[in-house]
Amino acid sequence: MTELGDEQWLGLYLEEALDPQRMAWIEKRLREEPALNRLLERLRREPSPSAVHSIGMAWVAGRLTCPTRTQWSKYLAGLLDTELSSYLKFHLELIECPFCRANVSDLQKRGASTADAAELADRSARAAGWSRPNER
Fold it and tell me: I need a surface site. Which of 45, 59, 119, 136 has the fewest CB within 10 A?
């Protein structure tokens, strides 16, 4: 996977122009290689014109693939269906999203009462016929 130079790989990474396996490969290298992190920070400060307005940048900035805090609460309590639970595990353990890792850590510190409260609120809203907006 090294036919391109690090700067080219990171440029494609920033533009979200890589397949999931290569994105994960870059993210793993970023965790292990401080020099690669410094290069990434330099590239972030000097974004290419295409990267500034790319769908990928909007996707990352909006954290569109991040589960809600309520979903994380339900995940920790084992209240999700298998498919969604598998995605959350992937997002947390393979992608290692820093926002979601912080969210999960906070929820774990608060304990099971958060998950119980979220489930109770969702059941109450459904019983009343309301649709609750997602919480982040």
Answer: 45
Lookup: tokens for 88: 């959350």
Query: Mean pLDDT over all residues of the chain?
Result: 79
Q: How many structural domains does the chain have?
A: 2
Which residue intervals of the chain are DSSP H helices? 6-14, 20-32, 34-45, 49-52, 55-62, 69-77, 82-93, 98-110, 112-127
The answer to whether 18 touches 8, Cβ cutoff 8 Å, is no
Question: What is the value of pTM for the model shown?
Answer: 0.45
User: What's the alpha-carbon Rg for the chain, to the nearest Å?
Assistant: 18
Does 83 share its domain with 106?
A: yes
